[in-house]
């Protein structure tokens, strides 16, 4: 029962993160939202694999965690490099 | 039986923390407040939920994988929060007041 | 419960897609794309498609947003307000397509029914016999790498073609190849010590995990493609943090380009070996005396070929894109 | 129940149409590629939906499971995902070259420059 | 070894392409690619001979029997198109060295040939396969390679053309994917033969109707049938001339093959209730395409662009023949498919030679070219006459069969329209002849002669082929008659 509750909570949190990603207002808010979304997906997959009783899915959760981290680093490095090369981000 | 209870409590605590973090993420006024809300709760909430799941399973392989995920999240989540806040600061995002309108005065030495 | 999660995920997908239609600004769009990838991957898990979820997580939420981000880093994230707006025409065209699709769904068998025609004809044989015929529990792997191995060869060629195409398109001047590590190391004002330290400890484990995924694909979700993506992601992470020249010194562009061809050749030569012994192309039975053993060897070798090509093509593409960035910036 | 039996398909149709709309209606070349991505991913979702058997489990053979979902769509979509990422990367490479040649990635501005 | 013949034409370029990456010198890459293409052509010709003797050849890839594994299924139709595509691919490749040197950046040369081989392999794979999903995979291989080849053009507009082609091509491919998904859903199989057996058992299904519609729209995007032709003029005009010659001679032909294969082998167009409306749609679109394409071609100021529009018109004729739908109609379509590849190959190779010599293809630049390049222009004129359909050329044969097929099915107006649109073709070919022979060359702008013997030889070869197949029509006519009979015979076994 608590497992189901956890899944529902996770879905609600994902909805909130999605909402934040839509309204922004800041680019970093969106990045944060995507990151939050990613970690919640990891938990969701883990929880669902227990709900299903097939722990094979845990590999997928692990990959999500990895990929999520890489994309955050990617965003940061890239926004930053852009700031250095083009001060003030001339195109918006 | 005892373990089931522990696992249930851990899951509930984790869910509660998640929800509070998300609420903060939704409602707080500026970026730094929001990253504070979810960055801080996230680590503990994730640990609670993963531990709760770990207790539920009875074979070694999934437990090991869960531990790996936990370890990874414990490493990566604070790192990315830190880096995100730093990048936002470098990009010129500044803290704002409670309604998200006025920029707050900065401490001396910053610009 | 499963059905409820299914419905919630689908609604979230629709919300994300609608937000993508409305939102302006490329970085925001890319973040939403990444979320879309994550959501569809979760959906695939619910639909029992674990291998697909694995791949979609790595591609839809990982590689493709990363490539988009690299391009936006060169171009800028601005999106014009009314450029190319032909909403009426678009609505008309999309409306017709949608109507046709809806018409098509009307006669479809109901969702999830075990007696739908698709589940009665070809697939049952895979589920019944693939265990005996290939000795591999993961049916998706055995269909992918044995029954429909030729499709997978096509897939490897597609990714190889993408690598060739990207180099061909982005090549400049007299230099042939994906990257020119000519510039000094990108030392920024802000070297991100924390990120570098944390990532450096993680990267070896990521590469190790890639090997695990490569060889564990027979028993669970995973396989050459996923392993290649994870391996390349580890390398790309290093490149992002230490700069293109640093990574190019370790993994030299010409070598990677050759490796991308090597993977395809490993795959192709495995097939040709069977031809030389008078069996059809990609018939693994010539590889060992015991047919099941032969299948397993064949599947392992071609998955290795897939992994090599995918990893090296992704690295090549990363080099080519990042190189644009560095030459543009300097 | 009758609505539920086709609900998945209809939602997927909506997803496809949204992606398709972005491709046609937006003038920004990268946005077009994003739309194409969404369009293709939606088709993948459709395929995977057709492979699902309610009550079935993931097609990894095991002695204590009776009913599996259909593995064939999974195999096809694995290939199609690769095709999708290949197309995206080639498209992005073209966009980068276009930006180098025209200084813009908005369709209107490019067309204007081409006419001159 | 002989039993592998079915797979060799595809496999050679498919494995040859990655091997070609190793060769870093462009000359070596070119020579290697030519060798591979030649071997593929030899294999394809043997295959044609064998299918004429033995009938259908089936090859189970991976050793798994048909609906479970992937099957190559070669009948007369595939074999004919395989020979055509590999022959044109080889000829254009042989001619390409000088033109590529002139039109493509040196940094791209060696990989250019790799991409060319991949494109050829993709096209051959589409034709050879008997599996619907495998067709999609090879379609994408050829498309991705094509985008890269088109983007090699010198002008920056080539990039825009390539990007537009990428967007439309991917939409088309995704439509085909949707169609295949619908088919799989209703039948549970992907094998074309198996589909053909199972589809009639379903009766009138909306899903099958939608599947056919999506596949047809997707294929017509690739075929550039009016009004889905928008990508073609830009792509043909801006791509390097060699790529244009290759695409014009092969890619649209393969798309037509796919259309015919799906319409007649898989979907049994005649027996379906759609037949009537589809007939009307194909014939109307074909006629409009034939007239619109020719009219735009008449007013074009650039030879390459004019020929691109002419391709749209010619695709129109092929659509008409599919629309007629009788054995005679299909035969006419297949003959035209064959002959049009020869014509457009010759014409675009001549254009490549012009680009090499005078640097451009506008009519202003080409004034008096007939005196400066007599042999190339002669070849161009032969190709042009064939395009019009003058007796004694290959083009006459295909027009003749097309008009005959229209009259046989008592479509008198259609027959008249086909003849009338041919007159429009005569107008734009005459316009070029006027420019080339009767106008004085612009003085002062004489670029140095570049050695292009191979290019000239291949152009002349294709022009001669146009004449040869105008007299000795046995190969295309008998093969296509057999293929058309097979296609229609499959319906009522």
Automatic annotation (TrEMBL), chain A:
InterPro entries: MrpF/PhaF-like. GO terms for molecular function: sodium:proton antiporter activity. It is a multi-pass membrane protein. The keyword Transmembrane helix applies. It holds the Pfam family MrpF_PhaF. It is found in: Cell membrane. Coiled coil: none annotated. Keywords: Cell membrane, Membrane, Transmembrane, Transmembrane helix, Transport. The chain crosses the membrane at residues 6-23, 32-51, 57-76. One of its GO terms (cellular component) is plasma membrane. Belongs to the CPA3 antiporters (TC 2.A.63) subunit F family. This is pH regulation protein F.
From TrEMBL, chain C:
Residues 12-73 form the MrpA C-terminal/MbhD domain. Pfam families: MbhD, MnhB. GO terms for cellular component: plasma membrane. The lineage of its organism: Bacteria, Pseudomonadati, Pseudomonadota, Gammaproteobacteria, Cellvibrionales. It comes from Parahaliea maris. Keywords: Cell membrane, Membrane, Transmembrane, Transmembrane helix. The chain crosses the membrane at residues 6-23, 30-47, 53-76, 88-106, 156-173, 194-213, 225-243, 255-277, 297-321. It is found in: Cell membrane. Belongs to the CPA3 antiporters (TC 2.A.63) subunit B family. This is Na(+)/H(+) antiporter subunit B.
UniProtKB/TrEMBL annotation, chain D:
GO terms for cellular component: plasma membrane. Pfam families: Oxidored_q2. The chain crosses the membrane at residues 6-24, 36-55, 75-96. Its main location: membrane. InterPro entries: CPA3_antiporter_subunitC, NUOK/Mnh_C1-like. Keywords: Cell membrane, Membrane, Transmembrane, Transmembrane helix. It comes from the Bacteria. It is a multi-pass membrane protein. NCBIfam families: PRK07375.1-6, PRK07375.2-3. Belongs to the CPA3 antiporters (TC 2.A.63) subunit C family. PANTHER family: ANTIPORTER SUBUNIT MNHC2-RELATED. This is Cation:proton antiporter subunit C. It comes from Parahaliea maris.
Automatic annotation (TrEMBL), chain E:
It is a multi-pass membrane protein. Residues 131-425 form the NADH:quinone oxidoreductase/Mrp antiporter transmembrane domain. The keyword Transcription regulation does not apply. It holds the Pfam family Proton_antipo_M. The chain crosses the membrane at residues 29-49, 76-98, 110-129, 135-153, 165-185, 209-232, 239-260, 280-300, 307-328, 334-356, 377-400, 412-430, 451-471. Keywords: Cell membrane, Membrane, Transmembrane, Transmembrane helix. Its main location: membrane. GO terms for cellular component: plasma membrane. It is found in: Cell membrane; Membrane. Belongs to the CPA3 antiporters (TC 2.A.63) subunit D family. This is Monovalent cation/H+ antiporter subunit D family protein. It comes from Parahaliea maris.
